[in-house]
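Suppose a colleague, Dr. K., hands you the sequence of a protein chain of 98 amino acids and asks what its three-dimensional shape might be. Before reaching for any lab equipment, you can write down a predicted structure in token form. Begin with the sequence itself:
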Amino acid sequence: MQKPESMRTFGTILTEARKRAGLTQKEVAERLRREDGRPVDAPYLNAVEHDRRRPPPNYLIEQLAQIIGISAEVLFYRANRMPADMEGDPTESDLCRL
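The predicted structure, expressed as tokens, is then:
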């Protein structure tokens, strides 16, 4: 049974999307790469999914979104973050597009 929308955490969203994609934590962890190229450990991913660890760095959120087939913006929202391309003050050209 799904939690009410207001109670769904980063870990909950990640778990649901991973399961919909038909992937195990181990499979996802093996595909995730740290900045130095090493794979992420499955126990780390398990801790993130169970909200025992904070959401991962932005570069891992972007990889997770691609691997499990979910919008990165959804994960950034649940992590209370903005994607890197949206951080900072808007430029004048950004404002003109509104």
